[in-house]
Amino acid sequence: MKKLVILFAVVLMCVTNVRTQVLTENFNFSGDLNANGWSTHSGTTNFITTTSGLTYTGYANSGVGNAAQVANGGGEDVNIAFSDQFDLDAETVFLSFLVNVNESASSKTGDYFLNMGDRTSATSFTSFCARVGVKITSDVVNFGISNTSTIAYGTTAFAKNTTYLLVVKYTISTAGNDPVSLWVFSSGIPADESSAGTAEATSSTTAGTNVVDAIALRQGSATTSSAVIVDGIRVGSSWNIAPLPVELTSFTAIAKGRGVELAWKTATEVNNHGFEIQRSEVRGQTSAVSWAKVGFVEGAGNSNAAKEYSFTDKVPVSGKYLYRLKQVDNDGKFEYSSSVEVNASTLVSGYELAQNHPNPFNPTTNIAFALAKDEFVSLKVYDMLGKEIATLVNNKQSAGAYTVPFNASAYPSGIYFYTLRAGNSAETKKMLLVK
């Protein structure tokens, strides 16, 4: 790759208050930052301006808009406020962003280029925390973290002009020092903090601010600081709001017409191949143990905008069902949503016999049917010659939906028929056994 790109994430989590995403900045504009939503709080020269945007595979804000070039000759420092502030004891903040260390010099003694904190006003910002630093020794890059001016650097050797993901976690402690941690990744996005492993650098011996409401970009001196490009800033109240791939915000199921209409929304998506829709029948107070795939809807891939999806499932018979989504990444990784239950009993308008599933089958399949009222029911299976080979049901059944298994392990491959008789009604369907 031609540039050193670093994705940095800082996390703020709330114990008693649940805050969502409080800042997203893709630098989707051209020109000086101070003319596009950012405020100058120090310096009157060498304005921070935009440059070409950065990319990081799998990151929601990758390749969106431009980026900010933070120089190393002193001058202007800028800040931007969050939509909500963090000010409670034990709250933790997560911030993620991309960084490109594009410094030409082979050595820099080190300084911080980004920080969070509590700003008095848009033009007054001196109470800092979670300062992210970089130093270069013989062209080797090290990243570090601090609350005060003394930065604790990690020992891992990183390269200039290479892509990384950095994650910083800052926790407010109103009674003492505020611990801060920094992770650095060369590829991928860990699903959670426990998957992130050991932090590259930590600091727990100094105090930062107990109010966090803004983030700043800082241009240090030519002696100590490195030139960096910053892009794709995200600040939220949990790890899965900052760098995590797919954020599902709603999932509903409604019985309508002759099927069940499913609808769901995402806030952001990263590396999202799509959603497999799965259904399970509810029997009594418990659900069936097995889930069946009933459809698939393609995802948006990478998106920082809200997306809406829908799918209609033509259920075989009326009854109660559970639905869940299996969200699948492009690399095959997946996770399940919570399940939703829907009562589709209103779909029954009378006597129904469904096609067996699966079909063809080997050697087991399921036969579903529904009754609008209590009936004496007979469900039998016949071979091609009309010979009865199995009786699956032969008693009175209450109104409702039923699924009956049929095991054909004792029979040869071929076409078979099953007939349902209920009251004065009868219906026959065929099925194919393939061994």
Write a structural description.
This protein is mainly β. It has 1 helix and 32 strands. Strands 1, 2, 4, 5, 7, 13, 14, 15 and 17 form a 9-stranded mixed sheet that branches. Strand 8 and strand 9 form a beta hairpin. The two termini are 53 Å apart. The relative contact order is 0.14. Residues 1-19 have low confidence and may be disordered.
Tell me the structural class: mainly beta
Strand content bin: over 45%
Sheet having the most strands? 9 strands, mixed
* Rounded mean pLDDT score: 86
* Secondary structure tally: strands: 32
Which secondary structure elements does this structure contain, and how are they paired or packed?
Elements: E1 6-11, E2 23-25, E3 39-42, E4 49-51, E5 67-70, E6 77-86, E7 92-101, E8 108-118, E9 127-137, E10 140-146, E11 152-153, E12 158-159, E13 164-171, E14 180-185, H1 193-196, E15 201-203, E16 212-217, E17 228-236, E18 247-256, E19 259-283, E20 286-287, E21 292-303, E22 307-313, E23 320-329, E24 334-336, E25 340-343, E26 352-353, E27 364-371, E28 375-382, E29 388-397, E30 400-407, E31 414-422, E32 425-433
Parallel strand pairs: 1-13
Antiparallel strand pairs: 1-7, 2-17, 3-6, 4-5, 5-17, 6-16, 7-13, 7-17, 8-9, 8-16, 9-10, 10-11, 10-12, 13-14, 14-15, 18-19, 19-20, 19-21, 19-22, 19-23, 23-24, 23-25, 26-27, 27-30, 28-29, 28-31, 31-32
